[in-house]
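ok trying again, last paste got cut off:
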Amino acid sequence: MALKIKFARPAGTQANKGFLLRIALIGAASLAVLFFVVSVFYYFKYGHIVDDRLEQPIFATTAKIYAAPREVRPGQKLSVQLIAEELRSAGYTSDGSATSSPLGTYSAGQQSITVRPGAQSYHAPDSAVIHTNGATVSYISDEKGQQLSSYELEPKLITGLSEDASRTKRRLITYDEIPPNLVQAVLAIEDRRFFEHSGVNFGSMLSWAWHDMVHDRKVRGGASTVTMQLAKLLFLTDNGSFRYKLIQVMVTFHLENHFTKQQIFEMYANQVPLGQQGSFSINGFGEAAQAYFGKDLHQLDLADYAMLAGIIQRPSWFNPFRHADRALDRRNLVLDSMVETGAISKDQAERSKAEPLHLAPGSVDASEAPYFVDLVHEQMQQKLGDRDFNREGLRIYTSLDPDLQRVATSAVESTVHVIDAQVDKLHAQEKKAGQSYAYPQVALVALNPHTGQVLALVGGRSYGQSQVNHAVAHRPTGSIFKPFVYAAAFNTAVEGTILSGQSKPFNPLTELSDEQTTYDVGGQSYTPKNFEGEYHGTVTAREALMRSLNNATIGLASMVGFDRVASLARESGVKSARGTPSMAIGAYDATPLDMAGAYTVFANKGLHIDPWMLASVRTTTGDVVADYTPTSKQVLDPRVAYLTTSLMENVLRGHGTGAGVRGMGFYAPAAGKTGTSHDAWFAGYTSNLLCIVWVGNDDYTDIKIEGSRAAAPIWAEFMKRAVQLPEYSDTNSFAVPDGVDVVNIDEESGLLSDDTCPGGFEAAFLEGTAPATSCDHPADHKNFLQKLFGK
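nice, full thing came through this time. structure:
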């Protein structure tokens, strides 16, 4: 018989259970009430913030900066396809498009393309037909068949003119302009139930909240819907706290109440950050399409849309320029996700996975000229004063050539290591001891010498590291100033004046003394030296400039008159020049931009043109607010400009200080001058392009590297690449003006070269000043050598 033992239940156990349950319920209710009160508080608090923010446009209108129009000329290497791409990137649409752009349209054939500017075009509404023979422009005509010498295409957008330091770039698009495949790609990887939920994915939210409470911070993400991401992008900063998440939810509810799903996605598509290149942040799919693919959004394919959707999660990690493998893997994951959602078929996904990344070459920093944009911003503020040009969304048309800007930036980036290697050698002891030292800064300015148009500008080694614009920093000009001394001397010949100590008007064979000389300057003695202390006795003017001899050049300036040389320099834009001996060898300062303008007097038949960047400011509908015309002044006789240019052509030949640029692969007809003081310079030009390069230390210490070894390599690399571009491929020899004779001179006798003494060199003389006799007997050789070298 089983024994059953019963223990008495303690009194009150049931009552205790009920009590604890009531306490738990009250606590839960209290927490719920507290959560509700806090939620209501934040809902109304941030509701006011959201309402205030939404009273203004979500994306503030910004002024837009445009490049210069590309001039198309017969003979340029341009195909119909390249011209069509240029027009599309400027905002034109083809005749077969569903909508017509207000900027203009085009229709392309096999060997011709018809361009029709629209109502909002930069140009007058004159159409043109550009005819090619396949790869080269053969001729241009209007639609009536009348031939045109050239035609300008629509300027391309460079950037928006940001007021803050973030330099954010964005191209606004509407929801209707977003390709369906892009919408599906984004939702497949970011928010599959976007069109179904009320803005919050509560399941994911609860999971996130649990892991947050147990301090499992490894589990993050996955909770934010597209609307929640937009709330963060527009209103909040993510600090990872529960409070932040609660506020994000409240803002999300407000956005869902204010806008339709399509409007929310449109705002998201314009705001989502998609990378950083150079100094610019890329926001929105419209801008990203240009930054990564060089195309408008509607021109991309399924694979491209999947890549854009894929980099949303971590734009830097998936940057396709730096991490192509990661970007490809992520793109393919998006394509698989689209198959799962039914947006595309498996076959479509596999075909897209087989495609490579279709990235556009170059970078934002290269093509978008941050130093140039900063200067334009400053000029806009100076010219328009307090006018809110950003709020008005003005269109600012500039001088910039994006293709040449890319070449300029690339030339600096790919050549600066040549300078750095020389600096390392100079500082070998410091490097060995582990001591730090700075590398020099760089500036490059390129102009159209006939218009003064600033085509490209690099203000430093890296805009991301330093925004100081060295292209407008005042530095001693060094020997690139010397051509003004020789130009002033040629001026005396044009006037019929003979310099003291000479028997004939100044010419390339005028003999100068290259001996060390002491000058009295304000009661103090000044004794200039040649480079490395070498002196050459009697030399010709041609040789003095070709070898950049200091004492011979100062002696010539003394003969011409220091004040007269200084006056010419000031008229040419070197405003600091004063009539002292040291002026002749570049002791006074100017900016690289100033020197580019100064050299237009040589490259532009004596006409000085102030460098300019602003062409026109217009409203969003194309109405003109202001047009700007560059100032110009005839400073030199065209004959003097050519004679000086001829001397500088010799600098790039034989034993000239700039001859190394030929060994670096630049062979086009050109003139130039090296400069070495505390800084290194190279100034040079072709028939259609002028470029100044400066290299120097920020602390004004001596760089201790000649211009031929520091600045010339950058100049040569830039010009070598520039002349490969269609716009600058038609470089020609410099045109000889009336009143100038170009003759062959026998190198030994200094007389005209003929069959009895062939060879020698070519030299330009003012009409009537060249040698009158030919080298026809050996005594001439002996006499000239005795005079020149004491032999």
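cool. The two ends are 147 Å apart (CA to CA). The mean pLDDT is 84.
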